[in-house]
Write a structure and sequence with these properties.
Layout (H helix, E strand, L loop, with lengths): L8 H15 L9 H21 L19 E8 L2 E8 L6 E3 L2 E2 H4 L3 H13 L7 E7 L3 H19 L4 H7 L29
Parallel strand pairs: 3-5
Antiparallel strand pairs: 1-2, 2-5, 3-4
Helix pairs in contact: 4-5
Length: about 200
């Protein structure tokens, strides 16, 4: 047996809101038939391309959506004087060495710079193991070479923490703080005083 309870103001408000929500009908968007046909053609044209491009594995690995997977790399920054080098070591791909989007040999001409830069790789016997890209700016050529060596060393330590002890012992991991001292007022250079004459 159901007992009818007297209606309060709160219960009446709840019932009214329920009736209002039931009456609301979602509006249907009207689309012109020409626009509808154009959208359908565009979808048909895009979908087969995405399926064809996807499912590629290997160095240019792509997902099913057609987007390229980002290559895994180890990034570090090296510094020397006012030169800065941002280095990335890629474990996949062609084993090339690019500096500022160009070949390494073109940017640093001469064996002296090559020996400076590749010293940590030679030390750890990893010369043909990585694809290396670097962005170098500021300072002179020698400072840039040493900054690049510092960046490569830091990236190698990120790649394998066991390398740290040997690279630190060689002195490649330490940031070289030596820089040109600033000129002082009243002096010709940092410490060079003007020549004194008695008469």
């Amino acid at each position: 047996m159901k007992i009818d309870m007297p209606k309060t103001k709160e219960t009446q408000k709840i019932e009214e809101t329920e009736v209002k929500t039931a009456k609301i009908v979602p509006a249907v968007k009207k689309v012109h038939p020409v626009v509808k046909a154009a959208e359908a053609e565009a979808i048909d044209a895009v979908v087969p391309e995405a399926v064809m491009e996807g499912d590629i594995d290997g160095d240019g690995a792509e997902t099913a959506g057609g987007k390229k997977k980002a290559d895994r790399y180890y990034e570090a920054v090296g510094r020397r004087k006012t030169a800065i080098a941002r280095v990335r070591l890629y474990t996949r791909g062609d084993k090339v060495f690019l500096v500022n989007d160009g070949p390494f040999g073109k940017y640093f001409v001469g064996d002296a710079y090559k020996n400076i830069i590749e010293a940590p790789l030679v030390k750890m016997n990893c010369t043909d193991r990585f694809r290396i890209t670097a962005r170098v700016m500021g300072g002179g050529v020698n400072a840039q070479a040493e900054a690049l060596r510092h960046g490569i060393t830091r990236a190698l330590v990120m790649f394998n923490a066991d390398f740290k002890k040997r690279l630190k012992k060689s002195g490649y991991l330490t940031r070289d703080p030596r820089m040109k001292e600033r000129k002082k007022p009243g002096l010709k250079k940092a410490r060079r005083a003007p020549q004194w004459a008695k008469r």
